[in-house]
Amino acid sequence: MIDKDILLKNYTTIVDAMNNAQDKHKACLLAVSKGQSIEKISLLLAHGHRFFGENRIQEIQKKWPELRQSHANIELHLIGSLQTNKVEDAVALCDVIEVVDRESLVDALAKAEHKLNIKRQYYVQVNVGEETQKSGVALQGLASLMHYCQSKQLQVIGLMCIPPEGVSPSPYFALMKKLQRHYGLPKLSMGMSSDFAQALALGTSQVRIGTALFGERDL
Ligand SMILES: *Cc1c(COP(=O)(O)O)cnc(C)c1O
Fold this sequence. Notes:
The protein is α/β, with parallel strands linked by helices. 44% of the residues lie in helices and 17% in strands. β1, α2 and β2 (51-54) form a beta-alpha-beta unit.
């Protein structure tokens, strides 16, 4: 059983914290529903929330066609790394793709947009901590990738990052804010359950929150 009261209380607590942190440019809450049941997601949809993030194409295929049938105006973001062979499904199923990090992926996305005759919106994911195991474009490759996206007519609206674990995320968030300004982008996607307060303080436009909202993942 899911406890509806707990979920809606978490939601209110997070939205209040967001409103208190930023008075002028309010950030959006991307509800990260990976590993969460249709029942829990439906509770948020019934509450009026429309803004969700998932990280696996297979899971999106299982959960979202049904949910989209019963609720209009859902905006689904892909926030997990994307293999080139899944790109067409990603463009078909997701409104916004936040994980653009290499030229081969840009090529595949542009091709899928053309084939399906759909335009999507994108974030470039930055490996802001320069960690070998993490996805995201290296800082030194960002300018060239931004340029490449433009040459392929992908509509890049922002930057996304997952900062290194175990150290303060704030210097990384501050750097991301600087990069967002440098490229004149409207959006910035940073801050998760454990560090969204810091991301809000440094001017993110969107936080991506899973467990602090839904509880532990159960799928
Ligand atoms: C899972 C995930 C989140 C949410 O993580 P929580 O710690 O559950 O809030 C945010 N962003 C990305 C890219 C994720 O994969």
